[in-house]
């Protein structure tokens, strides 16, 4: 009878441990994906920033055109500058959101790893206690 209970307990522990490990792996993959998204946003942000610097170096009366689908629309330097500044703000906000998500996911990974350690320690102390009680 005791062996059956121990076997069921061990099986339940294994299933729980497998579930937690799968969650940790999924979360680690999400963290990597968010890291790549942040990296790509930073690259795009630097391109927009450099474009804005180049545009601001031009004279005010320079003809500028904005690509809109399959055509180009004549815009003033100020309008294009404002659009680029707005893009930079939006990218900064997205980067901050992604960094917050990444920090949250990293914290959840740490907590899951701690839970696994605690389960292993509890399982090993339970096994040691049962061995001690037999003797």
TrEMBL record:
It comes from the Eukaryota. Residues 81-122 form a coiled coil. The keyword Coiled coil applies. Transmembrane segments: none annotated. GO terms for molecular function: protein folding chaperone; unfolded protein binding. GO terms for cellular component: cytoplasm; prefoldin complex. Binds specifically to cytosolic chaperonin (c-CPN) and transfers target proteins to it. Binds to nascent polypeptide chain and promotes folding in an environment in which there are many competing pathways for nonnative proteins. Heterohexamer of two PFD-alpha type and four PFD-beta type subunits. Belongs to the prefoldin subunit beta family. This is Prefoldin subunit 1. The lineage of its organism: Eukaryota, Metazoa, Chordata, Craniata, Vertebrata.
